[in-house]
Design goal:
Elements: H1 22-47, H2 51-81, H3 87-111, H4 114-146
Helix pairs in contact: 1-2, 1-4, 2-3, 3-4
Length: 156
């Protein structure tokens, strides 16, 4: 897929589910921009596997990881402040995602196997991101905006 400038992109921000809280949507759009920039650098490294490109990929991956940590912490603080009942489950998904990101990154740095990194970005990450937003973040954002859980039946 290419953007309007003809640059390869991995995720189209218009395909990202929208939730009931603007601050969460904005962070998701930032995620997409950072991920797409990383994907572009992965493609560059794949064509020209040199040390400069290796370090450029690493810098972008580290930027993405730091942004993701901040993103998750922002949600988690609000979940705790609002006593969000499924907080442990949502936080667990965040922790698992960060662990997976770290594992992929460490493997990449040790092996310089661009295919491993590329396949993670293409095959695993977009599906996880969409699923997480459609489930965890949608329920969480609804709770943030209404104080109720959309997955529970409401009494009339």
């Amino acid at each position: 897929m290419k953007n309007t400038n003809g640059v390869d992109i991995l995720i189209n921000k218009d395909d990202i589910p929208v939730v009931a809280m603007d601050f969460m949507n904005e962070v998701h759009y930032e995620d997409v921009e950072i991920i797409n920039a990383l994907f572009e650098l992965v493609l560059v490294y794949e064509k020209e596997p040199n040390e400069e490109n290796f370090h450029t990929v690493n810098d972008q991956y580290e930027k993405w990881y730091a942004h993701t940590v901040e993103h998750f912490q922002g949600e988690e603080v609000k979940m705790r402040e609002m006593n969000f009942p499924p907080y442990p489950m949502h936080k667990g998904e965040h922790d698992n995602a960060l662990h997976r990101m770290n594992d992929i990154y460490q493997n990449w740095k040790e092996t310089k196997n661009i295919q491993l990194l590329k396949m993670y970005l293409i095959e695993e990450l977009p599906a996880w991101l969409t699923q997480h937003i459609q489930t965890m973040d949608t329920i969480t954002a609804t709770f943030f905006s209404t104080g109720t859980m959309s997955c529970h039946a409401q009494k009339t």
